[in-house]
Specification:
Plays a role in the regulation of phosphate uptake. By secondary structure, the protein is mainly α. It has a single domain, classed as Up-down Bundle (Methane Monooxygenase Hydroxylase, Chain G, domain 1), CATH 1.20.58.220. Helix content is 84%, strand content 0%. It is built from 6 helices and no strands. Helix 2 packs antiparallel against helix 3, helix 4 packs antiparallel against helix 5 and helix 4 runs parallel beside helix 6. The two termini are 34 Å apart.
């Protein structure tokens, strides 16, 4: 019975890795729509977001089977409940990547975005999501804590983008609407970083029983 349980836990790890990889793809694809805001690129982001939703349902079903059929002990219960919380955050990451892609419909190809640090924010949030999921699979608390600390980098980039946008509006008032849309995009990236922090905190809970 325990062997079967261990096999299912391993499958849970694999599925979480796949869902995390989809989140990474969605963030990267959404960032590309800023550079080339085409319908085809947006369609790819939307499809990735739908695949993330499907993966969330699959993992949720797996967790329910583990809870109902295997009678897990306390440490296993923490792990499974943490996974359920994590997939909720990853699903939100997919939603926000989709929101970013949708925002690009309203952003004119004015070249404004190339003067901002939004692409750097995208790369930073991909790193946070990757590391947060890895920390769960590897049960690596040091990596989880590093994700929490790295959130300061994303927050600093967001503040930098805000300052850049304020300067751009003063320099080019006619680009004001585009700048506001880009600020919303930066905010979505900042929120994705927050979700990665949430994931790392659930990693800590699964290992220690304490949630920050």
């Amino acid at each position: 019975m325990r062997n079967r349980f261990e096999e299912q836990l391993e499958r849970l790890n694999v599925e979480l890795i796949r869902m995390g990889a989809l989140c990474e793809d969605a963030i990267s694809q959404a960032a590309k729509t800023l550079e080339t805001p085409t319908d085809e690129l947006r369609r790819i982001v939307y499809e990735t977001e739908r695949e993330i939703d499907r993966k969330e349902r699959d993992i949720e079903s797996l967790c329910m089977r583990l809870l109902l059929q295997q009678q897990p002990v306390a440490s296993d219960l923490r792990l499974i409940s943490s996974a359920l919380k994590m997939i909720s955050d990853m699903e939100r990451i997919g939603d926000q990547a989709s929101d970013i892609a949708e925002m690009t419909v309203h952003i004119r190809q004015s070249g404004v975005s190339s003067r901002l640090h939004i692409a750097e924010m995208a790369r930073a949030t991909v790193k946070m999501v990757t590391d947060s999921v890895d920390s769960f699979v590897r049960r690596d608390l040091d990596l989880a804590h590093a994700v929490e600390q790295y959130d300061d980098v994303v927050d600093a980039l967001f503040n930098r983008v805000k300052s850049e946008i304020i300067s751009l509006i003063a320099e080019k008032p006619e680009e004001g609407e585009t700048c506001i849309d880009l600020l919303m995009v930066a905010k979505y990236f900042e929120r994705i970083g927050d979700h990665a922090v949430n994931i790392s905190e659930w990693v800590e809970f699964s290992a220690t029983g304490q949630h920050v």
